[in-house]
Amino acid sequence: MNAFLTAAMEPSGAITLAVFALAILLFVTGWLAPEVTGLLAAALLVTFRVLKPDEAVQGFGSPALITLMGLFAVSAGLFRSGGLDRLRALIASDAIRSPKRMIALMVAVVAPISGFIPNTPIVATLLPVVEGWCHRRGVSPSKVLLPLSFATVLGGTISLLGTSTNLLASDVSSQLGFGPLELFSFTAIGIPVWLLGGLYMLWASDRLLPDRGLDDGDLLGSLAREGYLTEVLVPEGSELAGQSLHNSRLQRRYDVDVLELQRGSEVFSAPLADRTLQVGDRLVLRCNRETLLRLQQERTVVLSPPAEQEEALEEMKHPAVTSMRMVEVLLPNGSTITGTSVRDLRFRQRYNATLLAVRRGNQVLRELLGQVVLQAGDVLLLQAPLDAIRGLQANNDLVLLDELEKDMPTTNRKWVAVLVASLVIILPLFKVLNLMAAVLLAVVVMVATGCLRPGELQRSIRWDVILLLGSLSCFSEAMQKTGLAEALAQDLLHGLQGWSAYGVLFVVFVIAQLFTEALSNGTTVVLLMPIATAIAQGLSLPPMAFIFAITFAASQSFLTPIGYQTNLMVFGPGRYRFLDMTRYGAPLTIGLAIVVPWLICRKFGI
Question: Which residues does UniProt assign to the signal peptide (predicted)?
Answer without folding.
Answer: none
